[in-house]
Structure formats: C-alpha cells, structure tokens
Amino acid sequence: MPQITYLEAAKSAIVAAMRRDPHVFVMGEDVQGFYYSDVLQEFGPERIRDTPISEAGFIGAGIGAALTGMRPVIEAAFSTFLYSAMDQIVNQAAKSRYMFGGQASVPIVVRSSVAYGAGLAAHHSDRPWGIFAQIPGLKIIVPTTPYDIKGLLKTAIDDNNPVLCFEDAALGEVSGEVPDHEYQVPFGAADTKRVGSDVTVVAIAGCVDRSLQAARVLEHESISVEVIDPRTLVPLDRGAIVQSVRKTGRLVVVDPAPGMCSVASEIAALVSEEAFAYLRAPVQRLTAPDVPVPFSPQLEGVMYPTAEGIAAAVRATCNYSRRNPTAACAPAPLPAALR
Amino acid sequence: MTRITDSKRASRDLNVDQHREMLRRMLRIRLFEERAASLRSRLVGAMHNSVGQEAEIVGACMAVRDDDYMTGNHRSHGHPIGKGVALAPLMAELFGKQTGLCHGRGGSMHLAAFSAGSLGESGIVGSLMPVAVGAGLSSRLRGTDQVCLCFFGDGAANCGPFHESLNLAAIWGLPVIFLCENNGYALFTPQTRTTSVIDIAKRACAYNIPGVVADGQDVLAVYDCVAAAVARARSGEGPTLIEAKTYRYCEHQEFGEEFQAPRYRSEAEVAAWRKRDPIELFVNDLIGRALLSRAEVEQMRAAVEAEVEGAVVFADSSAVPEPDALMEYLYC
Ligand SMILES: Cc1ncc(C[n+]2csc(CCOP(=O)(O)OP(=O)(O)O)c2C)c(N)n1
Ligand SMILES: [Mg+2]
C-alpha cells in the first residue's frame, strides 16, 4: 500500500469524490493557488472555487448550494474562522432539515485545521469541537490517521447531513498506509487502537498518539492500557466506550480542548451513567485549562495533555483506593497558576 | 440607479388570467394574515404580518417561475403565499400541527416549501442572504437557468451577510435578485436613524451591479423591475438589487392585546400609506382597464375568504405531532 501524508490522504478522498460526482465541488480562500493547484486544470475554477474573505458568505453559499442539490466541500482554513460564520453553521446548516420538517437536507462538509501548540496564540489555536457538539443537526469528525481521514471524508461527502471535519495540524505531515481506491470509514465507530485490561483511555485528536506513547511506557510497569479513538464525536460510539470501561473498570479521558462542557465531560458523564457499578476509580479528565491560548511557548507548553501527564493520570487512577481516596486522585498536571 | 423605461415593461405582456392571479395572491396574503391575527390568542410564538406589503411580494413572485428559488425572512407568510403555496398546510404550521408545511417543527418564522422553490424563511435577520447566493451558484454549477429571489428588509441591509452576499453574487455573476422590502422601519427604529443612505438600492453601486428603486405599492411596477432583473440573471448577466418602497400597516408583529407598543410612528403616517393601499390601487387599475368588474373582485374576495376558512378548519382539525416523533427529521 502507498504511504502518503494525512493531508494528501484527505485531498485524495475529495478528488476521488469530485471525479465520481459532478455535484461535489470545493470552495474556500486560496484553494486554487495552494492545496488544489495540481487538480485545478482537471476540474477548473468553477469547481475549485476561490472565495473572498467572506466566511459567512461562502459557508452560507455552500449551504444554499447543498439545499439545492450540490455537495460542497468547504475549506475553512483555521477552526477559529468558523466563528465568523457561526450563524450560518448553527442556524442554517444544522437546523434547516429539522425546522423544515425533513423537506431539506444539507450535504455539506466543512474542513478546518486545529493548529494548537504552534505559537499561533489565541486567534488561531482553538479546538472547538465541544462548542459544535452542542448543536444538534451537525456531525463532527476528528480523524487522526491518513487512513481514517480518507475514509471518514468519503463518508462525510456521501452523507446527506452537514459534517464538520476538525484536523489536528500536528498530524498534517504524518504518513501512513492508504489504499489507492475509495473506501468508507463509518461514522459512530470508534477505533480501539490498543487492547488493554486495567484502564481505558479515550483520547481525541493529537492526544491519541500521546496516549499510545503513555501506554507503551506503562506496559513496562505492568499496567495494561486500552486506548480508544472515537474518530467521530457526533455520532459518538457510546457503546464501545461503555463496553471498554465495563471491562477495565477505569477511565481517563484525554482532550486538548478546554474542559468546561467539553466532549471529555460528555464521555465522563456517559460512563458515570452507564458503567457506574463497574468503576473502580473516579473518572479522570485530562483537558486544557479554561483559558485562551497564550502566545509565549513557555505558557502554551503547559496547556495540553502530554504523554507523561497521561501516564501519571493512569497511574493515579490505578492506585486509587476507596480507603484513601484523596491520595491517588491526580489533578491535571498543571502549574498552580494555570489550574 | 437604473429606472425601468416604458418600452421595457414586461407587465404589458401579462394576460387577463395573470392579472387576476396577481390580485388573487394579494388577497390571499391579506385575508390569510388578517385571519391569523384574529386567532392570535390561540397561537403560540411570533407572528410577523405583511399587511400593506402585498404588492411587492406578489409582483416579485409572479416575475419568477415555479421552479425558481426563493428565500425570505421573519415576515414570512407572504413569501410562500406569493410563490403559490396552498393555504391549508401554511395555516396548519401556524397551529403547530403535523399536517403543517414543516410538520410543526418550524412555525411562523421558519416556513419552507421546497416543492415550490421556497428554501425557507428565517428568524435571523440577514441569515438567508448567503444561502440565496448559494442557490444561484447551484443553478450555475448544475447548468440550469433557475434564479433565486432573495427577500430581505431594510434592517437587514445593515448586517454583514448583506454585504458579503452582494459582493459574492456580483463577482461570480450569479442569478440572484435581491429584493429589499423597505418598509421604513426595523422593529421600532426608523431607517433614517440606522442607515447611511435613503435609497438602499444605491448600495448596489458599491458592488458594481444595477440598483433599482420600485414603487412597492404598485404590483405591476415591482413586476416590471423584477422581470427585467430575472431576464438579466437568466442570460448570465448577474444579480440585481431592487428596493421596493413599502409600508406595513400592522405592528412589527402581532404582539397581542396586553402589549403596549411604543409610539414610534404617527397615525397620520399610517393613514397616508393606507391611502395608497396596494390592493385597492390594483383593483382600481384592473377595473379601469376593464380587466375585471367590481362584482368579479367581490367574487374573488369571497372565494379567498372561503379558502382561508377552509385552511383554518383544516388546521384546527389536524392532529398534533406525536411526542414520540420529537427527534424525527433531525438527521437524514
Ligand atoms: C440577527 C438578528 N438581530 C435581531 C433580530 C430581532 N429582529 C427581528 S425582526 C427585526 C427588524 C428587522 O427589520 P427589517 O429587516 O427592516 O424587516 P421588517 O421587520 O421591517 O420587515 C429585528 C431587529 C433578529 N431576529 N435577528
Ligand atoms: Mg423594515
């Protein structure tokens, strides 16, 4: 199988869909000159459509096109730019089908890059999937491998609902094996990246790889960690998570987004509702603190869960005992000032 | 700004039936909304009526085809009626019934009738303007000659999506007719206090597209302007901004009896506009040109009244949505 990068795999899914279906087209800022320059000749400027800096305008136009038979793929660049089109995404894309009683469907895919930890500071570094998970009607995917992004984007383009795709920028140049042909990775199907028996770690985006690193370290300490990548947050594979925790009795959730009302919180709540009797330790969340992303690398550097932090949280969870409950509960590994 | 010259008046080619259909749709809007207002205390939610604005709605809608697209706003009943949607499912939607246009999920502010090209009304001012641009883009990409008629208020002309939408439609030369229903007010605030221009159509020049002011109380004048814009749009010449000067007699919405609206306009002003009532003007014109007799007008009014009553009976006797079906229509 050929080795290609995450970003190449994403593009290959879109290009294949465009070859197969004339209703699929791409729209965004600078798409002709940059990411899609090599296929501009093949598809032409109508289907590889450069836009002005009008996020509400062109995301709204994508919704209008989707309502009338097209299947747009919107290149929204940074995730924070979605806020400029919040009304279009929330009030039109997500709600149109429901509020029009099923008359409409909005088959639109909106891709955006989640570029935290890169010194880009507050306006370019958000991990906003939790915000959008609050909006019924949207589907949310967070692919973490080249194989997954190609398959999930095909599923997204074929899906008749609006799909937001959040892409961890740290993964963009990571290579992996990807088949040449088109294939789907289904929504709502978590990927168990590593089987284990002592602790379940559910990790999102770039935290999946860090959790796998932590699991390899902990293996030497005879702690067996199961690592689950949900891959899609809406729909969420609740069954896989609950089943795993019923087996291991312990859960650590790792999410680089702020903790308040986060997907991590949702997963923690899910397990407390559906696997409470199986829990041998309190559920732990490792998230970013509830603070805008600072510029200074020395400050941003302590924001996100690390492999060491994840390993520490897993150890603490395993060491928890009901006799001495406070001793073992690991707080998020952050300096006091940030806590 | 462009003015429509006499030789270009498409309304000259309208036949008797088309004139009558125009009047019928204007009466449908008026009588439907007056009846809905009379039911106010029985219905929940907002209800924004357009009584007084029937000419600009119907004039515009009659200038597009059934398969053309349309987007609207919170002042929402007139647009689908103007586009030819039946009254019974519309009324049932105001009642929140399963037989409503949107099966009771939308209500007054979120009507849509996709089979009639109505892509939706909206509770968010300005929100559907980019969507209208997308419908125009879709026509172009699919190689059809459908246009999109985009209704919005004078208040919406001050929000970001207005400007983004006009610019996008202009640079891409899309078949969109932006129809500003300038009734002089956004809620209780007069346009003069919020808007940098008197004629919103003037803003067209910033986007290098034609801007036209129409007498919004004259259904044929609006028809002429929109027909010219539609012809332009279909032949690939791009969008037009049309501003119909009009007026709503009713309050911003049917607030209900307990609500005391602030005094933001004079009774003399309302009375002056009532003297140019769009239905009366058109009836007199039709009778004057012997296209219709007074008796025929009364017959038509009685028929529409009966249609409205039928719609109320239908809505009243329809079933409410099943609570079990709360999640229906969320995802495909
Ligand atoms: C984005 C947004 N802001 C405010 C409102 C509240 N609101 C509803 S209608 C309205 C006035 C709109 O005026 P205009 O566009 O002229 O339409 P009209 O009501 O006069 O037909 C306002 C402020 C809203 N619905 N959406
Ligand atoms: Mg107004």
Pair of chains with the largest interface and how many residues each contributes = A-B, 42 and 48 residues
Name the CATH class of chain B: Alpha Beta
Specify the helix fraction band of chain B. 25-40%
Cα(first) to Cα(last) distance of chain B is 45 Å
Shape of chain B: globular
Structure description:
The complex is a heterodimer of chains A (339) and B (332). Chain A is of the alpha/beta class and 339 residues long. Helices cover 36% and strands 20% of the residues of chain A. In chain A, strands 3-2-4-5-7-6-12 form a seven-stranded mixed β-sheet, with helices on both faces. In chain A, strands 9-11-10-13-14 form a five-stranded mixed β-sheet, sandwiched between helices. Chain A is globular, with a radius of gyration of 20 Å. Chain B is α/β, with parallel strands linked by helices. Chain B has one domain: Rossmann fold (3-Layer(aba) Sandwich), CATH 3.40.50. Chain B has helices at residues 16-38, 54-62, 78-82, 87-94, 129-142, 160-172, 219-234, 267-274, 278-288, 294-317; strands spanning 69-71, 148-153, 176-182, 185-186, 189-190, 211-215, 240-245. In chain B, helix 1 packs across helix 2 (54-62), helix 1 packs across helix 10 and helix 5 runs parallel beside helix 6 (160-172). The chains are: A alpha/beta (339), B alpha/beta (332). At the A-B interface, helix 3, helix 4 and helix 5 of A face helix 5 and helix 6 of B. The structure holds thiamine diphosphate (TPP) and magnesium ion.
List the helices and strands and how they pair.
The complex is a heterodimer of chains A (339) and B (332).
Chain A: E1 3-5, H1 6-20, E2 24-28, H2 40-47, E3 48-50, H3 55-67, E4 71-78, H4 86-93, H5 96-99, E5 109-114, H6 129-133, E6 139-141, H7 146-158, E7 163-168, E8 175-177, E9 191-194, E10 199-203, H8 207-219, E11 225-229, E12 232-234, H9 238-248, E13 251-258, H10 263-274, E14 284-288, H11 297-300, H12 307-319, H13 325-328
Parallel strand pairs in A: 2-3, 2-4, 4-5, 5-7, 6-7, 10-11, 10-13, 13-14
Antiparallel strand pairs in A: 1-8, 6-12, 9-11
Helix pairs in contact in A: 1-7, 3-4, 8-12, 9-10
Chain B: H1 16-38, H2 54-62, E1 69-71, H3 78-82, H4 87-94, H5 129-142, E2 148-153, H6 160-172, E3 176-182, E4 185-186, E5 189-190, E6 211-215, H7 219-234, E7 240-245, H8 267-274, H9 278-288, H10 294-317
Parallel strand pairs in B: 1-2, 2-3, 3-7, 6-7
Antiparallel strand pairs in B: 4-5
The structure holds thiamine diphosphate (TPP) and magnesium ion.
The site of magnesium ion has 6 residues of chain B, from strand 4.
